[in-house]
Amino acid sequence: MRKKLQPRDILVKEGDAGEKLYIVLKGELQIQKKEGTKLQNYGFWGPRSIIGEEALLSKMPYAYTLRATEPVEVLEITPENLQEAFDKLPVWFPPLLRFMDRHARKLELNRKKLAKIYALPALLFLCAKYAQKSEDGTFPLVPLIEDLGVIHGLGHNDAFELLRALCDLGTAKLIPGDLTQIHFYRKNLPSLLYRTLLARKKSKNIPRSLLSANDQTILTVFASVAKTKGQEKQGTTFIHQKDFVAKYKELFPGVKLTHRAFENLVQCGYLFSVPEFLSTPNFKDISQFYADKEAVKDLLELNRVYPLLDKKLIESMESR
């Protein structure tokens, strides 16, 4: 059956039950999709375009709204029309057609998931940019999502879903309101993650865990002591050696603490001592340790989140 539309008439509406298939015979339809609270335009469909085949074959709701921009004429095909055509085909053809449709939808779903993963570095770069401009790692989502769309072509809904997945990793939280915001618990984390992904792209030798078990243990103890007994001096936190040893024995009873356990962190510039570590062969002669407490926390958080980016991020998006 032929159907005619006038300019601004709606042929199908996003979310409505897909019951009919349309073939455009004349005119042009604008493709619109809801992104947040706004309708975004995604181009046009003109003559010979087939509309709603996935909805009709799989009983899926329409994924978009189609609005006429000029006088339009379409051929409307109902499930009854389709079944009548199927009855004239070989018995094996309809199941094959449905199988091909399911396979095509699965491929499209995987393509969308990969697009989100490929957009992750750009997202982290933008998060780092906005977080550094903020006072506490809190900034509005709209400019971020719009910039991501320009850089990577990711839609509003997909970008928001990717941000939700990052929040699921415990790195940030969304703050609802008239202007939705995102707050990163560690302001420097997006920048650290972005730089780590860049390093991984250049070198495939980056381990799954950035810190060794020993280094992670030492920094965890330092952060714990610094929180309660640290002394701040010009942005650096000092802790007494005896407090460090006491906390180490409390958290890791039975594990021997040696001078050598600190070597890698000292050589990498993450931890320092008084007197200078390399000139003090005996651990008992060290009176204090010192470091940038916030940098230590950032490093521990980076070490926690980085191994989760691949596996947990994909799992989080698949569960939606």
From TrEMBL:
Protein name per Swiss-Prot or TrEMBL: cAMP-binding domain of CRP or a regulatory subunit of cAMP-dependent protein kinases
Keyword flag Kinase: yes
Record keyword Phosphoprotein present: no
UniProt keyword list: Kinase, Transferase
Entry-linked InterPro entries: cNMP-bd_CS (IPR018488), cNMP-bd_dom (IPR000595), cNMP-bd_dom_sf (IPR018490), RmlC-like_jellyroll (IPR014710)
Pfam families: cNMP_binding (PF00027)
MF terms (GO), sorted A to Z: kinase activity
Residues of the Cyclic nucleotide-binding domain: 1-84
